[in-house]
Amino acid sequence: MKERIQTKFQTLFGCEGDIYASAGRINLIGEHTDYNGGFVFPGAIDKGIMAAIKVNGTNKVKAYSLDYDEYCEFGLNEEDKPAQAWACYVFGVCRETIKRGGKVEGFDCVFAGDVPLGAGLSSSAALESTFAFALNDIFQNGIDKFELAKIGQSTEHNYCGVKCGIMDQFASCFGKAGCLIRLNCKTLEYKYFPFNPKGYRLVLVDSCVKHELASSAYNKRRESCEKAAAAIRKNHPEVEFLSDAKRIWLDEVREEISQEDFIRAEYVIGEMQRVLDVCDALERDDYETVGEMMYQTHFGMSKLYEVSCEELDFLNKLARKYDVTGSRVMGGGFGGCTINLVKDELYEPFISAAKEQFEAEFGHAPKVYDVVISDGARKL
Ligand code: ADP
Ligand code: MG
To answer: In this structure, which ligand is nearest to the CA of 49?
Structure first.
């Protein structure tokens, strides 16, 4: 990829650029915990965005997307927002850097990537963090890494129309090879944990479906969580978010909240504990326990939180059948990928069965992405 990018950069701009890269991400466990002030547990992956960049002495950005084979030129003022969606990510990062007092002048760039778009691996965060990191380095702005992640998040909010949380950009800025990062979404404290599953592979199976239910269901789940938290708060004023609550505190309010709100809250409180259990297990190199927790999360998302779907439950069941160590739906639900931790020797039989049987059942093949936990934003 690096050579393709440099070659194009030479052709367009007559020299070589400096090479920067960043990564997409997975989240091993900790789903629907972010808006409940709980933990998520992401890591950067070996699929990302790479860009060649060089200051050009003008006040214009000249950007070329290799994957779309499109060129775009834009200024750095608010009214210069480009027409192409992909260019808005680059423009947004420039603007958000400037808004934070950073210096950004015109530059030339060529970039490409290998994160599948819209598959739940956050190609957009990879793109934002590549440029946020690069501009910070090139213009010596001294912006800290957390703020670089926020530059990416604000880019989505203000220039791409996506009201996302901080996890994706955080993972892609802070990612380190062989490490997952537990992020506390309330305090933003984070901690690295080793993730070196020797003898196992991490593989995503993409159902390639997205059910319409997703956004209305999401709002309803949030409401349930807020209601449960409010009921618990009456007895335990320290509960700001549902994730602050102990399981027994939920039992105390069982009669006061609806059965539906109760099981939603049961999932969230359970999921908080599972993240902690997975972290403990990783410190012991105990990947079997990690896998079991992933299955428990799937069960919770399917039966308690009710954000799974037929296709994802099918893939999860198949994983069990083929002795996959851990498997669960990754992301908000109602479609997208399952994330699977599978022993090397069971990989082939599982993946061929998943492809064949899923297609027989649903009429289209799933996509398969192998991932390795790798470095996030960096200069090469
Ligand atoms: P994801 O879940 O992968 O982040 P999004 O819809 O949030 O999906 O972001 C995908 C968008 O990000 C693409 O439509 C495109 O505008 C931009 N993008 C991501 N990767 C690339 C790439 N390699 N080249 C150009 N644009 C990209
Ligand atoms: Mg995205």
So the answer is: 1
